[in-house]
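Support request, please re-run this one:
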Amino acid sequence: LPVRQWAVLTSLLTAAGVAGLGFLSPSYHGMLVWMLLWSTGSHLFMTVESVMGLRFAREGGHGRRLGQISGVTNLAAIAGAGFVWAAAKAAGPELYRWSFAAAALASLAAAFLFSRVGSGGEASAPGGKRFVFRWGYRWYYLLNILFGARKQIFLTFAPWVLVTVYGATPSLMAALALTAAAAGVVFRQAFGALVDRIGERRMFIADALILLGICAGFVFSAFQPLLYFLFILDNLMFATRIARTTYLNRIVEEKSHIAPTIS
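Re-run finished. Output below.
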């Protein structure tokens, strides 16, 4: 399928999953089915987002465009979280359930908008191909493997340390996540522009050094405000995904390799 059709499909999967979570989950096992559907749509969209961002970027401005998209995504997440919080507080559980309906409608609207995107340029980044393995892409594969390991380890243990060892409350963890999302609106756009300006290699080195400092802080420091700052900084550094995507776009032998390789 072309990327545009993948975008429509992922939006429809997300809409169905979210609606099912809100209104068709009478049991735990039933809820798992809808959550799996929602998660599938959301994760597939990560590939679509990057590929379409490259497609609509000007030459030499790929990082900036991906940063803009990522920043807007953060802004939408903040707006969505605020809507759910307000609905739950103002009207209780019943209206809270309708937050799922609002999310499903937003996904349906996204599917409609994607369907209206012009079909020109599909050849530059088509979907539907199997994973592409090339020796020349080996550093991209390695960067993704290392990032995946680092992401899962830190997402698991950083909150665990803050909650279990230092007694962080749910409201504090939510505030940290909200702060990271708000800062990311600006940070990710600046990060993308900087990738275009100085190149991916320097950004990868900076990311590694910053991550080393974050890990050292969690190991050697018990100063909680510093740990909160490092937690937020780690979330911001997920923006390195932008550099990995532009790096792949620069080294691919054919543009048709981008979508299956990112996925």
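Confidence is low (pLDDT under 50) at residues 123-127. The longest helix spans residues 62-115.
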